[in-house]
Amino acid sequence: AMGIPLHRIPDIRRFYGRDAHGTDPINFMEEDYPPLKNHVIAARITAENPDEGFKPTSGRIDRVKFQSTPNVWGYFSVGARGGIHEFADSQFGHVFANGPTREDARKNLVMSLKVLEAIGEIRNPVEYLVQLLETREFKDNSIDTSWLDRLIKEKLVKINLDTATVVFCAAVYRARMHIEGEVDKFRDQLQKGQTTLV
After folding, report:
1. Domain Biotin carboxylation: where (predicted)?
2. Which of 64, 79, 123, 197 allows an S-S link to 49, with CB 3.0 to 4.6 Å?
3. CA–CA separation, 107 vs 160, rounded Å?
């Protein structure tokens, strides 16, 4: 806090039940703070491929669909028809969920991630995050960074996709891109007077 002692910061003082503008010191190692009444869990939304060790991806983002609720909010740095280029930070969003307990916050985050959609050329780890949040270790809060490293290394969390569905979705996506390209070409020709509607 730019050299200001913690015991002089009004929000810290309020948190410890002190006069916000007082100057008496607070012994942070000895003094208890009020019981927590709110828990928050956040998820970084990135253009990364969880199946390849969270390797960054780049490309167009056609749409991000996210709905805030009283217990979940988020922000995204890309809009419709935006994108992530190869030299950019892979994070393009952040989702926060709160609740009276850690478990309530976790459940709220899971529900919001299940309906979040980032559609385009990039990969994102949203489904992977949902599976991480549903693991017994995460629910029990018995996790650390080595836990996540082990899951990634051993590929213990993975998205199971039906091959036929993947092929169908890829075909639909390619068809859509082709049709959009043809429509754009037609509009350009029409604006230049090179095509008639008859």
Report:
1. 1-153
2. 123
3. 22
